[in-house]
Design a protein that fits this description.
- By secondary structure, the chain is an all-alpha fold.
- It has one domain (about 30-100).
- The protein is built from three helices and no strands.
- The chain has helices at about 20-25, 30-60, 70-100.
- Helix 2 packs antiparallel against helix 3.
- The chain is rod-shaped.
- Mean pLDDT is about 75; it is low at about 1-15.
Length: about 100
């Protein structure tokens, strides 16, 4: 029992609370949303290229022999990239809906 004390962790200092994400997003300008959308699209393009390059040597025979551990490692990296792509695609869709709702 902590006797009513504040739990250990990062202390709360009055006036330093972060606003809710919804409040911040509600205050975003169209330009800020477009800039974020552009950044998300660029990141998606980069991640898709990386995922393709990770998967291409796995099935190709010109890259030379790969051991099972290396093959599994590359597959795992590609799957992680694809999961991140999905998250960014959802974010992109959210941003696009926001822009459409404002018009």
């Amino acid at each position: 029992m902590n006797g009513g004390c504040v739990p250990v962790g990062s202390p709360r200092v009055e006036g330093t609370e972060q606003p809710d994400r919804d409040q911040v997003e509600g205050a975003q300008t169209d330009e800020a949303i477009r800039n974020e959308l552009r950044a998300v699209e660029e990141e998606l393009e980069s991640l898709r290229a990386q995922a393709r390059s990770l998967r291409s040597p796995i099935g190709g025979r010109d890259a030379g022999p790969m051991d099972l551990a290396e093959n599994a490692s590359q597959l795992q990296l590609a799957e992680e990239q694809e999961a991140l792509i999905e998250v960014l695609e959802n974010r992109r869709d959210t941003l696009m809906r926001k822009l459409e709702a404002r018009q």
